[in-house]
Structures are given as structure tokens and as C-alpha cells.
Design goal:
alpha/beta, 14 helices, 12 strands, 34% helix, globular, ATP binding, ATP-binding
Length: 345
């Protein structure tokens, strides 16, 4: 049994102009100690998926359907008090901006001690020693001094290290990192990701990394989910997705990386923009931007225009794309059948 199982997750926001589906039939698993990346453009639903795991979705948002099971326990139906024993304790989260996460009027030590006391029966002196040990683990220089400092007295990289230390305070089974290096310089980003990878491997902690940076995903994660307009459109081993992306959207993301452009020329880009979740196109949501959605005569394929693609298996990846389905169907079949999503679920 997987440590975390998410099945057919459906998240909606009840707005005045109508209901918006932020996540549509999102399913994935996470094993103990595994590192999973979730990638996609802004608005793809990455952060909503992360927040939903911890049930941090607030009104007008709500979970309309699906299941989230942690270590065999259903989380979507847990009462707030029971969920508090898991949130922060068994599943920790690292947010994008450390200055928004840390309380500016409390010292680092006060915040770490408060976190420990909220989940454990522990004295202030013991809690301070635990906090000090965690700061050492994330290579904070002069940790005794840092405990008595306020967030504004520290650099951005130092603050993010402290956020990681807080996430590790209660020895969680899973860390959810929502674009943890967005506000940092490139050199500091590399240090933070190296640190996060080292700590996860050392303590056998599972990691869900939310990012738009495929370069980071390729260096840190073992499996990757690619999301578009609230839906998973490709998932599989990270190396296979990076080296041989199947979905046209994933191919577009990889081609848009700076190193894929010819020196002196404009960067490659996917035409168009992510659709509004309030106005998702029928059929495949990516078809207005997809060069493969047209037939040889230049007309839109009917299936791309009208049918939401189901998953097919290509190699070790699952892909939701009509074109990939056609390619799989044209290959030699085992016992006269191609594999569908139902057969590999």
C-alpha cells in the first residue's frame, strides 16, 4: 500500500458567476521516501493539489469528490481536530515565500518552540534543544544566535532554510514543497534544492515538489506529474518524461527551456495561454494551442475538439492524448489489444 493515495480528486470553487473546477479527476500515489514532482504553467492546478492534500482549501473552495488516503486513513472526511494530528506532524508543507510564512513579530526560536508544543507534550528547554538541532541539520551558521533573531534580520536563503527546519521539526513522513525557491537567487535556489534532496534521502522522507521548473524536477524527483487546466495529462518516471516526453504540452515545456533555444535566437514558446478554469475548452483542454490537433488538411480533429482524452500507456508513462492513443494503437498489440488506463490503474 502506498503512503499517500489520491484518487479521482475533484476540487471546485463556488463563485458568483458559477462553479469553477480547479481539479478534475486527479489521481496519483506516493510511496515512503519517494520524490514526486508536479509541474505545469501558472493556473494548472499544482498548488491547489498541494493545499488539498492538507485540506487547506477554504471557502468558496471545497472538495467535490474523490479520495485522499494517508497511510490507509481517509483525510477528506476527517474532523479538524483529527486532521491537526496529521497536518504538520505527519505531512509538512514548505510555502513559496518564507517572509509570508514566518511571523515577523516572533523570534525564530519562539516560532519553532510553539510549533513543537502544538503537537507534542514537551518542555520549553527541550523544545529549544530540538529546534537547535534542526537548525544544525540545515547548516544554519551560528544556530544559537539565529534562534533569538527575527525573520527580517536574516537573508532570503537563511529564512528558507529555517522553513525547511520547521518542516522537519516533527519528523514528518511527507514534505509538500510549493515552489520553495521562487523568491531566491539562482545560486541560492541550487543550494536549497540540494539541501532538501539530502535531507529527504537521509531521513527517508517522501517529497512532493510543486514547480514550473523542469530543470529542478529532473535533478530532484523520481516521478513526475504534468498538469494542465486542472487535470493530469502525463505522468511517469522523471527521466523518461524529460528524455522522451509523449504529450505535446510536455514537449512544449521542455522545448521552452533556455538551453533548448539556438544561441542568439528567441526562446521557444508554446503559443497561446492557459485557459481560464471558468472557461475550459471542450474536448482536450490543450487543443487550441496544440499543433497536433489538426489533421493533414489543416482541420481540427473531431476527437480533440469534442472528447476529453483518456489515459493510454506509452512506455512507462500514462498519457492523456488522442494523438498518443493513435500511435499506441498503431503499434503491434499484445493479444490483439492495446493497454488503456483501465488496465493499468
Amino acid at each position: 500500500m502506498a503512503l499517500l493515495e489520491v484518487n479521482n480528486l475533484d476540487v471546485r470553487f463556488a463563485l458568483r458567476q458559477g462553479e469553477v473546477r480547479a481539479l478534475r479527476d486527479v489521481s496519483f500515489t506516493l510511496d515512503r521516501g519517494e520524490r514526486l514532482g508536479i509541474v505545469g504553467e501558472s493556473g494548472a492546478g499544482k498548488s491547489v493539489a498541494a493545499f488539498t492534500i492538507l485540506n487547506l482549501i477554504t471557502k468558496p473552495g471545497y472538495i467535490a469528490g474523490g479520495s485522499i488516503r494517508f497511510d490507509g486513513q481517509e483525510l477528506t472526511t476527517l474532523k479538524p481536530k483529527a486532521l491537526q494530528k496529521i497536518r504538520g506532524n505527519k505531512i509538512s508543507m514548505i510555502f513559496q515565500d518564507p517572509m509570508m510564512t514566518l511571523n515577523p513579530v516572533l523570534t525564530i526560536g519562539d516560532q519553532m518552540v510553539e510549533c513543537l508544543k502544538a503537537h507534542r507534550r514537551i518542555g520549553s528547554r527541550e523544545a529549544r534543544n530540538v529546534a537547535l538541532n534542526k537548525l544544525r541539520q540545515v547548516y544554519i551558521p551560528s544556530p544559537e544566535k539565529r534562534l533569538d533573531q527575527y525573520p527580517h534580520e536574516l537573508s532570503g536563503g537563511m529564512r528558507q532554510r529555517i522553513i525547511i527546519a520547521i518542516a522537519l521539526l516533527l519528523d514528518p513522513d511527507i514534505i509538500v514543497a510549493d515552489e520553495p525557491t521562487t523568491a531566491l537567487d539562482v545560486t541560492i535556489q541550487a543550494e536549497i534544492m540540494t539541501l532538501l534532496l539530502e535531507l529527504c534521502e537521509k531521513h527517508n522522507v517522501a517529497l512532493i515538489l510543486i514547480t514550473h521548473d523542469l530543470g529542478v524536477v529532473s535533478q530532484v524527483t523520481q516521478r513526475t506529474l504534468v498538469m494542465y487546466a486542472g487535470r493530469v495529462i502525463e505522468q511517469g518516471p522523471t527521466r523518461e518524461i524529460i528524455n522522451d516526453a509523449q504529450h505535446p504540452y510536455t514537449q512544449g515545456l521542455i522545448n521552452a527551456l533556455p538551453q533548448m533555444a539556438t544561441p542568439g535566437h528567441r526562446l521557444n514558446q508554446i503559443p497561446g495561454a492557459m485557459p481560464s478554469l471558468a472557461n475550459i475548452p471542450p474536448g482536450c483542454a490543450f487543443h487550441p494551442r496544440c499543433s497536433f490537433s489538426k489533421d493533414d488538411a489543416g482541420n481540427l480533429r473531431r476527437d480533440c475538439r469534442e472528447q476529453v482524452p483518456g489515459f493510454v500507456t506509452s512506455g512507462n508513462c500514462r498519457v492523456a492524448c488522442h494523438m498518443v492513443r493513435d500511435l499506441v494503437d498503431s503499434e503491434p498489440r499484445d493479444n490483439g489489444r492495446s493497454k488503456t488506463s483501465q488496465e493499468v490503474s
